[in-house]
Amino acid sequence: MVSCTDSDAIEETEIRSTPYFPLRIGSTIDYQITEVIYRNEGQQIDTIRSQLRESITGQALNEAGDTIHIIERLSRPNENASWSRLSNHRILINDNQALRTEGNQTFIKLRLPIETGEEWNANAFFDDRALIDIGGESIDYYKGWTSRYQNRQDQVKILNQSYSDIIEVELASTENRLELRQANELYAAGIGLIYRGVNVLDTQCFDDCADVPWEEKAEQGHIYRQEIIDYN
Q1: Whole-angstrom distance, CA of residue 220 vs CA of residue 191
Q2: DSSP one-letter code for 54
Q3: What pTM did the predictor assign?
């Protein structure tokens, strides 16, 4: 476990040895995934549930000579079904940044050392102005995203399991009459990502929907939850 200094910062060497961003071959985390997708101007709302397994299965060198770790991702519709291969992601810590590459997008997940209130552009390595397909419709997904360390939490409960020594990363927190962009991630020391929540929603109903919850007035986008089930 990692203790905080008076400045609420952690030395880089400490983070590398007891990371919130583990780089241990053989480690595995299972997640419960819940996604609500809005289609056809909100006339169709689909809820999809599944399970995701992420395992660090090996390492390799990238073109710059850095050691990257490979995450094998498996998916299944429920706990009684068999796992199917989904994709591979790549992670590394380089230049005081914890990086994760998903397809052709590399995200700066964490900045080191970790310090409450620190801000950074997590999407600096790709064009975050490009439209993203959600439910067959294009949406300005990353509009207004800026990562920021929030306060630490001694303990959180996810799916009735408690986890200790948590840092929260706020990924987005913007809202106007037409758009909602809210997202955050929770990391536990020695485990890694234990929770990801994203609300990316658009609507054209604003004059008559000022007091209507986004879950009811949304016409496009999705609500996404990724919650840890188990790890080893």
Answers
A1: 34
A2: E
A3: 0.90
